[in-house]
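Margin note: ligand = manganese (II) ion.
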Amino acid sequence: MLEGPLDLARSRILVTNDDGIHAPGLKVLERVARALSNDVWVVAPEIEQSGAGHSLTLRRPLTTRQLSKRRFAVDGTPTDCVLVAVSHLMPRRGPDLVLSGVNRGANLGEDVTYSGTVSAALEATLIGLPAIALSQVRDGTHPVKWQTAEHHAADVIRRLTRFGWSKGVLMNVNFPNVPANAVTGVQLATQGRRVASIEIVPVTDPGGRPYLWIGDFTSDEALEKGTDLAAVEAGAIAVTPLHIDLTHQGMMRKMKQDFA
Ligand code: MN
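Resulting structure:
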């Protein structure tokens, strides 16, 4: 939650991600955060946690590794990182803003339900902190256009922290897969839905045993207007306010008479 405009220069910013402490996107976001404030902390997973969603490590202990004064790796999930950061590593003064990313790849449509990047922001929101998830859309065959996120992220963060946010809201930002100077603008967008689904790829290991890879999403067609998917396809930065409360109010109203 964000009660009102945030004075970023005086804010303590926590940076986390799901691609891990060594990810290039984390370094991008650290530089962006440092351009906004001198008080930047980094607490990120020791190893990549993409697809970890909102999972929490409950059946084994967690270790933290301090890399420098305000930089830590946690051998857990993005959710673990936010919890450990806020309740353990930053005991005297917690963050005023949590930034998660920049993720290597999109977090659009239903991606947000799998995403460790978005879930770190979700966890911060549950604690009552304003949080922004940031992702750089890419395609599989070309280098990730990190410069696009790096060039535009600070402006988007400034814009998003100029007003108060409703309770339980987190911000999901996706940078389009175009060069920084080809970005067509910032678009407010709804969470879309992909037409295609994830493919399962059967393979054989060197010992002749069959196994499976959960593959990538196949291409998306028939983009619904106003969605995050359509926005990045049009070369715009997609901004979507997400909500912790997953209740469908319309369906709730329809069901009311049957559950009177
Ligand atoms: Mn990731």
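Residues 195 and 220 are 6 Å apart (CA to CA).
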